[in-house]
Write a structure and sequence with these properties.
Length: about 375
């Protein structure tokens, strides 16, 4: 079964945590991309554009465009447009982008156009969250999908209402950056973790000297940097290349409610609990085993737990697990007695609610 294969893979997860480059664990505050969006028209379609009776904004956009070009339509004129589609144009403005730089854009139909294949995007301003124009987009739309109709039947491969224009936008305005201001930069960990933040500070100070870095909290780290731009770029290049061993993250179990997939980021053990689900019962308890040394041997008494799984296919199926059982073993055992993925999801949710499953449970 797929679940059993997942359990086998999870049980084989390696325990050691390896060193990672700092650039993979953190980013520099202020060095980020900015989303841009614009509304435009795609023309030149082969009869696959918006149906203007159902998308009046397409007609309004065409009329407004013609008026801006000095073309005034007679009052009462009704446009029947089949080769025009209203679209939204989106892209991201990279950090340090300068005027004249080219960007790829995505063009998405917002009406009921059947296809954007063969169309041309007219000049479209791209605005940021502040309402300012940062780019202009225009060009031929490339659609990766294919559609065909013959003898009353239709066939379609991929999506026809979304296309892409390579180098379809030109940057018109640069975003102001605080990169070269002051004598400090701030690192932001991708995931807040006090232990990892402490290790990053130790690694940076070991590489560049004491008091170079200091942690402000579990995510932000303050780093003293050179004032001149050239030295700062070299410094940050060396900073990002430092190897840091991140702290072990919290145990997490990801459940896909649609497919039944189970993914764990590390080995997870379960505490005592009892779960009843339909005709299936899951009982988990801890049974200590005491090992005593021989008389006068000088050894010590050791208390350990027994981890075993006993599956009984009897009326009211019982799955018995003892002592620190691994969640991977539970998944494997549940699949062995025919539990469905939905049964598995319900049981793990119940274990989490009862406090037996101490890992973070996320359902997607």
């Amino acid at each position: 079964m797929a679940g059993a294969a997942f359990a086998g893979m999870l049980a084989a997860l390696p325990a050691p945590v390896h060193a990672e480059r700092l650039k993979d664990l953190a980013s520099i505050q202020g060095v980020r991309q900015n989303q841009l969006i614009g509304y435009g028209l795609v023309v030149g379609l082969d009869g696959s554009g918006d149906q203007t009776t159902q998308t009046p904004f397409t007609v309004q956009s065409v009329v407004s465009m013609l008026q801006n070009m000095g073309v005034n339509l007679p009052p009462g004129t009704t446009l029947q447009l089949k080769n025009v589609a209203a679209v939204m144009v989106t892209t991201s403005l990279p950090a340090f982008a300068q005027p004249g730089q080219m960007l790829d854009v995505t063009v998405s139909s917002m009406g009921n156009a059947k296809s954007l294949r063969g169309g041309t995007l007219l000049m479209t301003p791209l605005k940021g969250a502040d309402g300012q124009i940062y780019g202009m987009a225009q060009g031929n739309v490339l659609v990766g999908g294919v559609g065909a109709a013959a003898n009353g039947s239709k066939a379609q491969v991929n999506h026809l209402s979304v296309g892409r224009i390579s180098n379809g936008a030109t940057v018109e305005r640069a975003v102001q950056s605080s990169f070269n201001r002051g004598d400090t930069v701030f690192l932001e960990l991708n995931d807040s973790d006090f232990s990892t933040a402490s290790r990053v500070v130790e690694a940076v100070n070991r590489r560049f000297g004491p008091d170079t870095a200091s942690a402000q909290d579990g995510r932000v780290i303050r780093v003293r940097a050179p004032a001149t731009s050239d030295e700062r770029v070299s410094f940050l290049g060396a900073l990002e290349s430092i190897n840091v061993t991140p702290a072990q993250t919290n145990a997490k179990v990801i459940l896909n409610a649609r497919t039944g997939s189970v993914v764990m980021n590390q080995a997870v053990t379960l505490d005592s609990c009892a779960v009843s689900h339909g005709n299936l019962s899951v009982v988990i308890n801890t049974e200590p085993v005491i090992s005593q040394p021989a008389p006068l041997s000088g050894g010590q008494t050791v208390v350990t737990g027994v981890s075993q799984i006993d599956i009984k296919k009897e009326p009211g199926q019982v799955l018995l697990l003892k002592g620190g059982t691994s969640l991977a073993d539970v998944v494997k055992a549940l699949n062995a007695i025919g539990a469905t993925p939905q049964d598995l999801l319900a049981i793990l949710q119940a274990m989490k609610a009862a406090g037996s499953l101490r890992a973070e449970l996320e359902i997607i």
